[in-house]
Amino acid sequence: xxxxxxxxxxxxxxxxxxxxxxxxxxxxxxxxxxxxxxxxxxxxxxxxxxxxxxxxxxxxxxxxxxxxxxxxxxxxxxxxxxxxxxxxxxxxxxxxxxxxxxxxxxxxxxxxxxxxxxxxxxxxxxxxxxxxxxxxxxxxxxxxxxxxxxxxxxxxxxxxxxxxxxxxxxxxxxxxxxxxxxxxxxxxxxxxxxxxxxxxxxxxxxxxxxxxxxxxxxxxxxxxxxxxxxxxxxxxxxxxxxxxxxxxxxxxxxxxxxxxxxxxxxxxxxxxxxxxxxxxxxxxxxxxxxxxxxxxxxxxxxxxxxxxxxxxxxxxxxxxxxxxxxxxxxxxxxxx
Length: 336
Ligand SMILES: Cc1cc2nc3c(=O)[nH]c(=O)nc-3n(C[C@H](O)[C@H](O)[C@H](O)COP(=O)(O)OP(=O)(O)OC[C@H]3O[C@@H](n4cnc5c(N)ncnc54)[C@H](O)[C@@H]3O)c2cc1C
Known about the structure:
The protein is built from 8 helices and 19 strands. By secondary structure, the protein is of the alpha/beta class. The chain has 2 domains: 152 residues, 3-Layer(bba) Sandwich (FAD/NAD(P)-binding domain); 102 residues, Alpha-Beta Complex (Polyamine Oxidase, Chain A, domain 2). The strands form 5 sheets. It has a 6-stranded mixed β-sheet with strand order 8-2-1-12-19-18, covered by helices on one side. A 6-stranded mixed β-sheet has the order 6-14-15-16-13-17. It starts with 8 loop residues before the first strand and ends with a helix. Flavin-adenine dinucleotide (FAD) binds next to helix 1, strand 2, helix 4, strand 13 and strand 17.
Protein backbone atom coordinates (compact mmCIF):
# COMPACT_ATOMS: atom_id res chain seq x y z
CA UNK A 1 0.00 0.00 0.00
CA UNK A 2 1.35 3.44 -0.91
CA UNK A 3 1.05 5.78 2.03
CA UNK A 4 0.94 9.57 1.84
CA UNK A 5 3.12 10.82 4.69
CA UNK A 6 2.01 14.46 4.24
CA UNK A 7 -1.32 14.11 6.00
CA UNK A 8 -1.67 13.89 9.77
CA UNK A 9 -0.46 10.38 10.20
CA UNK A 10 1.62 8.30 12.56
CA UNK A 11 3.38 4.96 12.62
CA UNK A 12 3.30 3.42 16.09
CA UNK A 13 5.85 0.69 16.76
CA UNK A 14 4.41 -1.53 19.51
CA UNK A 15 0.84 -2.60 20.29
CA UNK A 16 1.25 -2.70 24.06
CA UNK A 17 -1.00 -0.58 26.25
CA UNK A 18 1.00 2.61 25.59
CA UNK A 19 1.01 2.25 21.80
CA UNK A 20 -2.66 1.29 21.57
CA UNK A 21 -3.86 4.15 23.76
CA UNK A 22 -1.74 6.64 21.82
CA UNK A 23 -3.05 5.22 18.53
CA UNK A 24 -6.66 5.57 19.67
CA UNK A 25 -6.17 9.20 20.72
CA UNK A 26 -4.59 10.06 17.38
CA UNK A 27 -7.23 8.16 15.43
CA UNK A 28 -9.98 9.92 17.38
CA UNK A 29 -8.37 13.24 16.43
CA UNK A 30 -8.64 12.28 12.76
CA UNK A 31 -5.11 11.00 12.19
CA UNK A 32 -4.30 8.01 10.04
CA UNK A 33 -2.47 5.60 12.32
CA UNK A 34 -0.65 2.35 11.56
CA UNK A 35 0.40 0.18 14.50
CA UNK A 36 3.10 -2.45 13.96
CA UNK A 37 3.88 -5.21 16.44
CA UNK A 38 6.27 -8.12 16.19
CA UNK A 39 4.07 -10.27 18.45
CA UNK A 40 1.47 -12.75 17.24
CA UNK A 41 -1.16 -10.75 19.07
CA UNK A 42 -1.51 -7.36 20.69
CA UNK A 43 -0.76 -6.46 24.31
CA UNK A 44 3.02 -6.77 24.72
CA UNK A 45 3.64 -7.40 28.40
CA UNK A 46 -0.12 -7.62 29.07
CA UNK A 47 0.07 -11.20 27.88
CA UNK A 48 -2.15 -14.27 28.14
CA UNK A 49 -1.13 -17.72 26.87
CA UNK A 50 -3.43 -20.73 26.41
CA UNK A 51 -2.42 -24.38 26.49
CA UNK A 52 -3.91 -27.62 27.76
CA UNK A 53 -7.33 -25.98 28.04
CA UNK A 54 -6.06 -23.43 30.57
CA UNK A 55 -5.32 -19.70 30.30
CA UNK A 56 -2.29 -18.09 31.92
CA UNK A 57 -1.45 -14.44 32.39
CA UNK A 58 2.32 -14.59 32.25
CA UNK A 59 3.36 -10.92 32.05
CA UNK A 60 1.49 -8.30 34.08
CA UNK A 61 -0.68 -10.03 36.69
CA UNK A 62 -2.96 -7.19 37.78
CA UNK A 63 -2.95 -3.43 37.88
CA UNK A 64 -3.95 -0.69 40.26
CA UNK A 65 -5.33 2.81 39.72
CA UNK A 66 -3.72 5.86 41.30
CA UNK A 67 -4.92 8.79 39.22
CA UNK A 68 -8.21 10.02 37.76
CA UNK A 69 -7.18 9.93 34.10
CA UNK A 70 -6.30 6.23 34.23
CA UNK A 71 -9.25 5.57 36.56
CA UNK A 72 -11.61 6.94 33.91
CA UNK A 73 -10.15 4.59 31.31
CA UNK A 74 -10.46 1.60 33.61
CA UNK A 75 -14.12 2.40 34.32
CA UNK A 76 -14.70 2.37 30.57
CA UNK A 77 -12.94 -0.99 30.18
CA UNK A 78 -15.07 -2.47 32.96
CA UNK A 79 -18.28 -1.12 31.38
CA UNK A 80 -17.21 -2.59 28.04
CA UNK A 81 -16.62 -6.00 29.64
CA UNK A 82 -12.87 -5.93 28.96
CA UNK A 83 -11.70 -5.61 32.60
CA UNK A 84 -12.87 -6.59 36.07
CA UNK A 85 -11.81 -6.14 39.68
CA UNK A 86 -9.86 -9.17 40.87
CA UNK A 87 -9.14 -8.56 44.55
CA UNK A 88 -8.27 -6.02 47.23
CA UNK A 89 -4.94 -7.52 48.27
CA UNK A 90 -2.97 -10.76 48.19
CA UNK A 91 -1.21 -13.01 50.65
CA UNK A 92 2.38 -12.00 51.30
CA UNK A 93 5.35 -14.35 51.69
CA UNK A 94 4.33 -15.15 55.27
CA UNK A 95 0.76 -16.06 54.26
CA UNK A 96 -0.70 -12.85 55.71
CA UNK A 97 -3.15 -10.85 53.68
CA UNK A 98 -2.88 -7.17 54.56
CA UNK A 99 -6.34 -5.68 53.78
CA UNK A 100 -5.27 -2.41 52.18
CA UNK A 101 -8.63 -2.04 50.42
CA UNK A 102 -7.22 -0.97 47.03
CA UNK A 103 -8.77 -2.73 44.05
CA UNK A 104 -6.51 -4.85 41.85
CA UNK A 105 -7.83 -5.21 38.31
CA UNK A 106 -7.44 -7.88 35.63
CA UNK A 107 -8.55 -8.36 32.06
CA UNK A 108 -11.95 -10.06 31.86
CA UNK A 109 -10.60 -13.22 30.20
CA UNK A 110 -6.96 -12.55 30.93
CA UNK A 111 -4.77 -9.48 30.58
CA UNK A 112 -4.98 -9.48 26.78
CA UNK A 113 -8.73 -8.76 26.92
CA UNK A 114 -7.86 -5.11 27.47
CA UNK A 115 -5.42 -4.58 24.57
CA UNK A 116 -7.68 -6.63 22.30
CA UNK A 117 -10.54 -4.30 23.16
CA UNK A 118 -8.34 -1.23 22.60
CA UNK A 119 -7.16 -2.52 19.23
CA UNK A 120 -10.70 -2.79 17.84
CA UNK A 121 -11.11 -0.53 14.83
CA UNK A 122 -7.41 0.38 14.64
CA UNK A 123 -5.07 -0.55 11.79
CA UNK A 124 -2.89 -2.93 13.82
CA UNK A 125 -0.52 -5.21 11.94
CA UNK A 126 0.74 -8.03 14.14
CA UNK A 127 3.58 -10.40 13.33
CA UNK A 128 5.41 -7.38 11.90
CA UNK A 129 8.84 -6.74 13.37
CA UNK A 130 10.11 -3.25 12.52
CA UNK A 131 13.72 -3.56 11.37
CA UNK A 132 14.55 -0.15 9.90
CA UNK A 133 13.42 3.42 10.39
CA UNK A 134 14.18 5.94 7.71
CA UNK A 135 13.51 9.66 7.55
CA UNK A 136 11.66 10.71 4.39
CA UNK A 137 10.80 14.14 2.95
CA UNK A 138 7.55 14.30 4.84
CA UNK A 139 8.09 12.06 7.84
CA UNK A 140 9.17 8.52 8.57
CA UNK A 141 9.18 5.16 6.83
CA UNK A 142 9.33 1.96 8.85
CA UNK A 143 10.23 -1.30 7.17
CA UNK A 144 9.45 -4.69 8.68
CA UNK A 145 11.25 -8.01 8.44
CA UNK A 146 8.42 -9.33 6.22
CA UNK A 147 8.88 -6.53 3.68
CA UNK A 148 5.81 -4.67 4.98
CA UNK A 149 6.29 -0.90 5.08
CA UNK A 150 4.41 1.88 6.80
CA UNK A 151 4.83 5.63 6.46
CA UNK A 152 3.65 8.50 8.54
CA UNK A 153 4.45 12.10 9.37
CA UNK A 154 5.08 11.13 12.98
CA UNK A 155 6.75 8.11 14.53
CA UNK A 156 6.01 6.76 17.98
CA UNK A 157 8.41 4.20 19.47
CA UNK A 158 6.80 2.33 22.38
CA UNK A 159 8.94 -0.80 22.79
CA UNK A 160 11.14 -1.18 25.87
CA UNK A 161 13.68 1.61 25.29
CA UNK A 162 16.76 -0.58 24.63
CA UNK A 163 14.78 -2.23 21.81
CA UNK A 164 13.70 1.13 20.35
CA UNK A 165 17.29 2.41 20.52
CA UNK A 166 18.56 -0.77 18.83
CA UNK A 167 16.02 -0.27 16.04
CA UNK A 168 17.32 3.25 15.40
CA UNK A 169 20.98 2.23 15.70
CA UNK A 170 20.56 -0.69 13.29
CA UNK A 171 18.76 1.60 10.85
CA UNK A 172 21.87 3.80 10.70
CA UNK A 173 19.98 7.02 9.88
CA UNK A 174 18.42 9.25 12.49
CA UNK A 175 20.19 9.37 15.85
CA UNK A 176 18.88 11.22 18.94
CA UNK A 177 20.98 14.10 20.27
CA UNK A 178 23.68 13.28 22.80
CA UNK A 179 21.47 14.58 25.62
CA UNK A 180 18.46 12.52 24.50
CA UNK A 181 20.69 9.46 24.05
CA UNK A 182 22.00 9.91 27.58
CA UNK A 183 18.46 10.16 28.98
CA UNK A 184 17.20 7.20 26.97
CA UNK A 185 20.29 5.15 27.79
CA UNK A 186 19.57 5.60 31.51
CA UNK A 187 16.20 3.80 31.32
CA UNK A 188 16.60 0.26 32.65
CA UNK A 189 14.47 -2.82 33.30
CA UNK A 190 14.76 -6.05 35.25
CA UNK A 191 14.28 -9.41 33.51
CA UNK A 192 11.68 -11.94 34.68
CA UNK A 193 11.52 -15.68 34.06
CA UNK A 194 7.90 -16.85 34.12
CA UNK A 195 6.84 -20.48 34.36
CA UNK A 196 3.25 -21.48 33.63
CA UNK A 197 2.19 -24.87 35.03
CA UNK A 198 -1.04 -26.69 34.22
CA UNK A 199 -2.04 -28.68 37.32
CA UNK A 200 -4.05 -31.87 37.66
CA UNK A 201 -6.17 -30.37 40.45
CA UNK A 202 -6.79 -27.11 42.35
CA UNK A 203 -3.62 -25.30 43.40
CA UNK A 204 -2.63 -24.59 47.02
CA UNK A 205 -2.47 -20.84 46.28
CA UNK A 206 -4.75 -19.17 48.86
CA UNK A 207 -7.73 -16.98 47.97
CA UNK A 208 -7.99 -14.70 46.06
CA UNK A 209 -5.40 -16.53 43.97
CA UNK A 210 -2.09 -14.73 44.39
CA UNK A 211 0.95 -14.71 46.68
CA UNK A 212 2.98 -11.53 46.41
CA UNK A 213 6.41 -12.64 47.60
CA UNK A 214 8.58 -9.85 46.16
CA UNK A 215 11.92 -11.34 47.15
CA UNK A 216 14.47 -13.82 45.79
CA UNK A 217 14.30 -16.29 44.20
CA UNK A 218 10.53 -15.80 43.82
CA UNK A 219 8.50 -12.70 43.08
CA UNK A 220 4.94 -13.99 42.59
CA UNK A 221 2.72 -17.07 42.38
CA UNK A 222 -0.67 -16.61 40.74
CA UNK A 223 -3.54 -19.06 40.33
CA UNK A 224 -5.23 -18.33 37.01
CA UNK A 225 -8.36 -20.38 37.87
CA UNK A 226 -8.98 -18.58 41.19
CA UNK A 227 -8.29 -15.36 39.34
CA UNK A 228 -11.27 -16.19 37.17
CA UNK A 229 -9.57 -16.38 33.78
CA UNK A 230 -8.95 -20.13 33.40
CA UNK A 231 -11.34 -23.07 33.39
CA UNK A 232 -8.55 -25.46 34.34
CA UNK A 233 -6.18 -25.03 37.31
CA UNK A 234 -2.86 -23.48 36.41
CA UNK A 235 -0.29 -21.32 38.15
CA UNK A 236 2.05 -18.60 36.93
CA UNK A 237 5.35 -18.39 38.82
CA UNK A 238 7.62 -15.35 38.45
CA UNK A 239 11.26 -15.57 39.43
CA UNK A 240 12.73 -12.61 41.32
CA UNK A 241 14.78 -10.10 39.29
CA UNK A 242 18.17 -11.24 40.54
CA UNK A 243 17.41 -14.94 40.12
CA UNK A 244 15.94 -14.28 36.67
CA UNK A 245 19.05 -12.36 35.62
CA UNK A 246 21.40 -15.08 36.84
CA UNK A 247 19.44 -17.90 35.19
CA UNK A 248 18.14 -16.10 32.12
CA UNK A 249 20.03 -18.27 29.64
CA UNK A 250 19.55 -21.58 31.51
CA UNK A 251 17.80 -24.50 29.81
CA UNK A 252 14.00 -24.38 29.95
CA UNK A 253 13.80 -27.64 31.91
CA UNK A 254 16.18 -26.35 34.59
CA UNK A 255 14.35 -23.03 35.02
CA UNK A 256 11.00 -24.85 35.14
CA UNK A 257 12.20 -27.41 37.70
CA UNK A 258 13.72 -24.74 39.96
CA UNK A 259 10.77 -22.33 39.89
CA UNK A 260 8.30 -25.18 40.53
CA UNK A 261 10.44 -26.32 43.43
CA UNK A 262 10.70 -22.80 44.94
CA UNK A 263 6.94 -22.28 44.55
CA UNK A 264 6.23 -25.68 46.12
CA UNK A 265 8.39 -24.77 49.13
CA UNK A 266 6.62 -21.42 49.44
CA UNK A 267 3.19 -23.09 49.36
CA UNK A 268 4.14 -26.16 51.39
CA UNK A 269 3.07 -28.52 48.59
CA UNK A 270 4.64 -30.75 45.97
CA UNK A 271 3.76 -28.63 42.99
CA UNK A 272 6.06 -30.49 40.59
CA UNK A 273 4.20 -33.79 41.07
CA UNK A 274 0.86 -32.08 40.44
CA UNK A 275 2.09 -30.52 37.18
CA UNK A 276 0.75 -31.88 33.90
CA UNK A 277 2.31 -29.48 31.38
CA UNK A 278 4.46 -26.36 31.48
CA UNK A 279 5.49 -23.40 29.39
CA UNK A 280 8.20 -20.78 29.93
CA UNK A 281 8.30 -17.08 29.07
CA UNK A 282 11.57 -15.18 29.23
CA UNK A 283 10.91 -11.48 29.71
CA UNK A 284 14.15 -9.62 29.12
CA UNK A 285 12.36 -6.38 30.04
CA UNK A 286 9.71 -6.71 32.74
CA UNK A 287 9.74 -4.01 35.41
CA UNK A 288 11.36 -0.61 35.03
CA UNK A 289 14.17 -0.04 37.51
CA UNK A 290 15.23 3.38 36.27
CA UNK A 291 12.68 5.59 34.48
CA UNK A 292 12.86 8.88 32.62
CA UNK A 293 11.06 11.44 34.82
CA UNK A 294 8.85 12.83 32.02
CA UNK A 295 5.94 10.78 30.58
CA UNK A 296 7.47 10.76 27.07
CA UNK A 297 10.54 12.03 25.24
CA UNK A 298 10.46 13.98 21.98
CA UNK A 299 13.62 12.99 20.08
CA UNK A 300 12.73 14.98 16.97
CA UNK A 301 10.20 17.84 16.61
CA UNK A 302 10.03 17.89 12.83
CA UNK A 303 9.28 15.33 11.64
CA UNK A 304 8.05 14.21 15.06
CA UNK A 305 9.63 11.19 16.72
CA UNK A 306 8.44 10.42 20.24
CA UNK A 307 9.51 7.71 22.67
CA UNK A 308 6.97 6.47 25.22
CA UNK A 309 6.04 3.42 27.33
CA UNK A 310 6.48 2.36 30.92
CA UNK A 311 10.08 3.65 30.96
CA UNK A 312 8.67 7.20 31.08
CA UNK A 313 6.99 8.81 34.08
CA UNK A 314 5.26 6.27 36.30
CA UNK A 315 5.98 2.53 35.96
CA UNK A 316 3.64 -0.43 35.40
CA UNK A 317 0.42 -0.63 33.41
CA UNK A 318 -0.89 2.72 34.65
CA UNK A 319 2.39 4.46 33.87
CA UNK A 320 2.56 2.93 30.39
CA UNK A 321 -1.05 3.98 29.69
CA UNK A 322 -0.41 7.55 30.85
CA UNK A 323 2.79 7.67 28.82
CA UNK A 324 0.93 6.67 25.64
CA UNK A 325 -1.67 9.35 26.29
CA UNK A 326 1.06 11.93 26.97
CA UNK A 327 2.79 11.06 23.69
CA UNK A 328 -0.48 11.53 21.79
CA UNK A 329 -1.04 14.83 23.60
CA UNK A 330 2.39 16.02 22.44
CA UNK A 331 1.75 15.03 18.85
CA UNK A 332 -1.65 16.72 18.91
CA UNK A 333 -0.23 19.86 20.50
CA UNK A 334 -2.40 19.41 23.58
CA UNK A 335 -1.21 20.42 27.03
CA UNK A 336 -2.13 16.97 28.41
C1 LIG B 1 6.57 -10.63 34.23
C2 LIG B 1 5.93 -9.29 34.31
C3 LIG B 1 5.10 -8.97 35.38
C4 LIG B 1 4.50 -7.73 35.47
N1 LIG B 1 3.62 -7.48 36.47
C5 LIG B 1 2.93 -6.32 36.47
C6 LIG B 1 1.89 -6.11 37.40
O1 LIG B 1 1.51 -7.02 38.15
N2 LIG B 1 1.27 -4.90 37.41
C7 LIG B 1 1.60 -3.90 36.53
O2 LIG B 1 0.96 -2.82 36.57
N3 LIG B 1 2.58 -4.08 35.62
C8 LIG B 1 3.24 -5.26 35.57
N4 LIG B 1 4.21 -5.48 34.63
C9 LIG B 1 4.62 -4.35 33.78
C10 LIG B 1 3.60 -4.03 32.68
O3 LIG B 1 3.27 -5.21 31.99
C11 LIG B 1 4.23 -3.01 31.73
O4 LIG B 1 4.63 -1.88 32.47
C12 LIG B 1 3.30 -2.54 30.61
O5 LIG B 1 2.50 -3.57 30.10
C13 LIG B 1 4.19 -1.94 29.53
O6 LIG B 1 3.41 -1.50 28.42
P1 LIG B 1 4.18 -0.79 27.21
O7 LIG B 1 3.15 -0.43 26.20
O8 LIG B 1 5.04 0.30 27.74
O9 LIG B 1 5.21 -1.88 26.63
P2 LIG B 1 4.97 -3.34 26.05
O10 LIG B 1 3.77 -3.96 26.63
O11 LIG B 1 6.27 -4.03 26.18
O12 LIG B 1 4.66 -3.08 24.50
C14 LIG B 1 5.71 -2.86 23.56
C15 LIG B 1 5.39 -3.62 22.30
O13 LIG B 1 6.41 -3.36 21.33
C16 LIG B 1 6.56 -4.50 20.54
N5 LIG B 1 7.85 -4.42 19.85
C17 LIG B 1 9.09 -4.38 20.40
N6 LIG B 1 10.02 -4.27 19.42
C18 LIG B 1 9.34 -4.23 18.25
C19 LIG B 1 9.74 -4.15 16.88
N7 LIG B 1 11.03 -4.04 16.51
N8 LIG B 1 8.78 -4.15 15.91
C20 LIG B 1 7.47 -4.25 16.25
N9 LIG B 1 7.04 -4.35 17.53
C21 LIG B 1 7.96 -4.34 18.52
C22 LIG B 1 6.45 -5.65 21.53
O14 LIG B 1 6.09 -6.86 20.87
C23 LIG B 1 5.36 -5.14 22.47
O15 LIG B 1 4.08 -5.64 22.11
C24 LIG B 1 4.78 -6.74 34.48
C25 LIG B 1 5.58 -7.05 33.39
C26 LIG B 1 6.13 -8.32 33.29
C27 LIG B 1 6.95 -8.69 32.07
